[in-house]
Amino acid sequence: MRLVDIALKDLLQIIRDWKSALFMVVMPILFTVFFGLVFSPSSVDGDPRLPVGFVNQDQEGNLVGRLQELLENSDIVRPVSLEADEATRMDEMLRDGDLAAALVVQVGYSQQAFAGEDPSLTVVADLSTTSGQTAHSGIETAVSRLRSAVETAHISAETFDEQEGFESERGRQAYLQEAVDLAIAEWKQPPLRVDVERATGGATPEAEAPSGFAQSSPGMMVQFAIFGLITSAMVLVLERKSGALKRLLTTPINRTTVIGGHVLAMFTVVFLQQITLAVFGQFVFGVNYVRAPLATLSMMMTLALWAASLGLLIGAVSKREEQVITWSLIAMFVFASLGGAWFPLEVAGEAFTTIGKITPSAWAMDGLQNIVVRGQGLNSVLLPAGILLAYAAVFFGLAVWRFRFE
Amino acid sequence: MKTFDIAFKDLMRSLRTPFALVMMFGAPLLITALLYFAFGSLVGDGDRFDLQSIRVKVANLDQPGAQDGLAAGQMLVEFLQSEDLADLLEVSIAPDESSARMAVDGQQADVAVIIPQDFTAAVFAPNREEAVNLYSDPTLTIGPGIVEDLVRQFIDGFAGAKIAAGVVAEQVEERGVAVDMRVTQDAAMQYAHWQESSGHDHAQAEGGSIILETRSPSGAPSGDQESGGQGSGMMGRIMAGMMIYFAFFMGALSAESIIREDEEGTLERLFTTPTSQAAILGGKFAAIVLTLVVQIVVLLVAARLIFGIGWGKPLPIALVTLGLIVAAAGFGVLLMSFVKTTRQTGPIMGGVLTLTGLLGGLFISGVPNLPEAFDTVRLSMPQGWALHAWELTLNGAGVGEVLVPVVVLLGLGALFFGAGVILFRKRFA
């Protein structure tokens, strides 16, 4: 009972401080919104395909329209025709993110392609970005298919020539054009294709990529579980500085109860924060936490336990208020980045990812994303939750070892 | 002289405080170092991400008939297992479709490639369609995208031959010429030869493509002219973002010393000495500027030495540094002029600076190609102007190009500073 009293006292102290609401609720929500918008797939009028500038300098060419059709048919890119004045601003549009890439069809391209010269096209893209690489790949597929159609036309014309022969060069050209049209029509719905299915278990509707909030919402839950420790760990430091902790030892309350009371308060604070952020994520950002309520609850409880143990450790090693802020910030930066709370670990280098995957924050992210992105249930969080519990035990042990009442 | 003494004393106090040192140098360098570690491969050679191996589970359900002469499914498996792709893909075979899917669900694989039972049959039979199914981990985008590209390229070869045979049959037949099996097979073979020679040329081509000549957008951030590469440009922008955030933080933290000394009563005692109030407050403000000078110079040099960031040309760097110092100092003075006690400084500094830094784009400075709307939002904040100025110098801009953001920063800094000084003078009048 005394343990609960100490926890309630800490909670009252934290709740009365308006800074708590700022650090634990307002800031994580702001960050979730901001990063969610930044990392959400861009779409224009509901079209999620990457915009590719299309500059046609081959005005007379009869292959350009076909190439544009193939690009229109792509699942990855959509062509945006650029007039002469817009084409001069093409590089600027790429830098500003209005276009993911641009394709320039030079004068004489169609003629050279029909003559079997295999001319190349110019692509302008920043290949250091995912969108640049993806758009490049989409363009390459479309251009390969156009070349294939031209080659098909040559093969067909040659075959007909061998069998019957053309009456005139004009007839041959018309035949070639018809063959290209037929082949392009086939390429729009190729007989052999690749179907892509995301293993979302229904977490997101079919054919829909997870939104940026599926990364930012759990990410900010993990980050601010650590950042929020500033206020709760501060209580501990202030009690030590004021001598309240030492005075408590003169009462019948034992050391375990005092430490347990403070940990219980920290756990409750982080757990309530998690619930608030999950509710916000569910109803405002459409991140589906309630699809597996038990799994979500398990993750939130174990994350809160680990964060509380970390908070106790920070409170144990800090002598002054500034030290609490410093250690909390360092812990937040290290665990949030290495754990994939800022960006998916997939985009980082191998060494970073390998180290990152050992951190408790990465397991927290993994468990939460198993629910909201992979659409899995309770079984999928048993391992992440178990590992978080083990980390909580280790951090708690360290905190108790380092804990000083004066 | 007394102004300088006060400024020097405050500077030394900052440099002796571990918390201030962490905020001045530790935090910005730590965050940049973490991101350098994460994206270090991008900073190195080349301009493509050095990806982790993509774990691919293949379930080959293809059952070719004896008459088909080849096993298209097995060819796809061998293509994915080829030595050329060994660095990129880590391919293992699943006995059936459900094991392949379970491997992805259990995160044992990033993507499952499921080759259908009638794949080979569909390659040969006219009017027959078939799909290779990719089942991927939804938290991943890059790896599954690459596998999709590779599989699509491979099966496009078969699809092209099939289309060629179909087009030949349709066109020739339409002109009243009988088409037998041999003609369409010849057409498919011809196509396959072309595909093979074209693929060979493709592999030989420098840069990996003979059909596309690729260039980067002109004026794209290139970062360090010496180390080159887009990655160092990204690191430069990240470091600039962190430097600006923590410069504004230090501007406010240094200005907090006025509140602290007021609270501790030392400021009041100073006012009783023959030193004028203007000299005392001037010394306090000069300390903020001095602290920021030390912080920014150290960060610029450290970032250059540790991360190889080339900040640009010396004169524009000096101008942008000046602009940043004036804006950060002015903002700090104004912010602290609203604060009554040191208990309020933490949340006000944390809240206001994080919010304005967020809107100023400091936390996403490494993200390329953001929508134009973000540019508009970020330029409504002094931090956004500072980031814009540093981006220009990182791109090698000259004095003329950085002049507008520098003038804006100086103007905003002067405005903030003036307002802050008026408020402080009123308080101590």
List keywords for this structure.
A: 406 residues; alpha/beta; abc type-2 transporter like fold; 2 domains; 5 strands; 66% helix; B: alpha/beta; four-stranded mixed sheet; 7% strand; elongated
Helices and strands in order, then pairings?
The complex is a heterodimer of chains A (406) and B (429).
Chain A: H1 2-16, H2 18-39, E1 50-56, H3 64-72, E2 77-81, H4 84-87, H5 90-95, E3 101-105, H6 109-114, E4 121-125, H7 130-163, H8 169-188, E5 192-198, H9 213-227, H10 229-242, H11 244-248, H12 255-283, H13 293-317, H14 321-338, H15 350-356, H16 360-372, H17 378-402
Parallel strand pairs in A: 1-2, 1-3
Antiparallel strand pairs in A: 3-4
Chain B: H1 2-16, H2 18-43, E1 54-60, H3 72-80, E2 89-93, H4 97-105, E3 111-115, H5 119-124, E4 130-136, H6 142-174, H7 181-204, E5 212-215, H8 230-264, H9 266-271, H10 277-307, H11 314-337, H12 342-359, H13 372-378, H14 382-394, H15 399-428
Parallel strand pairs in B: 1-2, 1-3
Antiparallel strand pairs in B: 3-4
Helix pairs in contact in B: 1-10, 2-8, 2-10, 6-7, 8-10, 8-11, 8-12, 8-14, 10-11, 11-14, 11-15, 14-15
Structure report:
The complex is a heterodimer of chains A (406) and B (429). Chain A has helices at 2-16, 18-39, 64-72, 84-87, 90-95, 109-114, 130-163, 169-188, 213-227, 229-242, 244-248, 255-283, 293-317, 321-338, 350-356, 360-372, 378-402; strands at residues 50-56, 77-81, 101-105, 121-125, 192-198. Chain A is an alpha/beta fold. Chain A folds into two domains: 2-40 and 211-402, no CATH class; 50-188, abc type-2 transporter like fold (3-Layer(aba) Sandwich). With 429 residues, chain B is of the alpha/beta class. Chain B has 15 helices and five strands. A four-stranded mixed β-sheet of chain B has the order 2-1-3-4, with helices on both faces. In chain B, α8 (230-264) runs parallel beside α11 (314-337), α8 (230-264) runs antiparallel to α12 (342-359) and α14 (382-394) runs antiparallel to α15 (399-428). In chain B, 49% of the residues are buried. Classes of the chains: A alpha/beta (406), B alpha/beta (429). Chains A and B meet through α2, α5, β4, α7 and α8 of A and α2, α4, α5, β4 and α6 of B. β5 of chain A pairs parallel with β4 (130-136) of chain B, so a sheet runs across the interface.
